[in-house]
Design brief:
With about 250 residues, the protein is α/β, with parallel strands linked by helices. About 40% of the residues lie in helices and about 10% in strands.
């Protein structure tokens, strides 16, 4: 029985670009919490994830609070921002990730491990595709070695459709977050709708003009932040810092 669920990580887990009517973000973790609560009413849920965080920052800033809640299930997605940095070493990132997983498992919580998704269709970001693939292989081994539950996003074909992503081509769209929530729910034994349900109709491939607009609107500001040593999460705090009922996590 799952009575409590804590999610830690970066923008992926915070829920970026899955906006509610009031401007706050929901995301796959909020959606998963709702699925869990519908299956077993009374679930308590916390989300400590903050956009832009690197693996070591997540460990330093979020682990103590997460473990203090003594959750039944703990979702831990981290390392993606590290791998997008030039010269990053997926083997070294994976070694630090495994140390962190061992700490979480020592608490007695069941841990959800998430592979990275395929960025092969995104200009510039596709340069990190090989590093992400190597990292994913480490994550599969780590999950098996520490008896964690694996949510394999790389193999989720629905995320290869660009409708799964928002305009920035890095963060999921609301429907993309929904597909991840369904997959994570199934990994936890819930009977969710099919995460790989075919997308309705077809969509035209991105044009050169689309790529240029994306680069100007999203890539250039991202590169500028990296050069300045800034993060999109510098002024952001956790949206659900303690375990609480999930009624206000609902997306409406």
């Amino acid at each position: 029985m799952i009575n409590s669920f804590v999610a830690i990580g970066d923008s992926f887990t915070e829920g970026l670009n899955d906006f509610r009517s009031d401007g706050t973000v929901a995301g796959w973790a909020d959606r998963l919490a709702c699925y869990l609560d519908a299956d077993q009413p009374g679930l308590r849920y916390a989300n400590l994830a903050v956009r832009g965080r690197l693996l070591d920052q997540i460990v330093e800033e979020q682990f103590a609070s997460a473990l203090a809640e003594h959750p039944d299930v703990l979702a831990f997605s981290a390392g993606g921002n590290d791998l997008l940095r030039v010269g990053s070493d997926p083997d070294a990132v994976a070694a630090r990730y495994e140390t962190a997983v061992a700490q979480l498992r020592a608490s007695g919580a069941q841990v959800l491990v998430f592979t990275g998704f395929d960025v092969g269709s995104t200009p510039v970001l596709r340069l990190a595709r090989g590093r992400i693939a190597i990292y994913n292989e480490h994550l599969r081994v780590i999950a098996a070695r520490h008896d964690c539950l694996l949510v394999d996003l790389w193999s989720l074909d629905a995320l290869r459709d660009r409708r799964a992503f928002s305009d920035d081509r890095l963060h999921l769209s609301p429907e993309g977050h929904e597909r991840v929530a369904r997959l994570a729910g199934r990994v936890l034994g819930l009977e969710t709708a099919a995460p790989d349900e075919p997308w309705p109709g077809t969509i035209e491939a991105a044009t050169r003009r689309d790529d240029l607009i994306w680069a100007r609107t999203h890539l250039v500001p991202w590169v500028r932040r990296r050069i300045r040593g800034e993060s999109s999460g510098d002024a952001v705090v956790a949206k659900r810092p303690v375990l609480d009922a999930v009624h206000d996590a609902r997306t409406g």
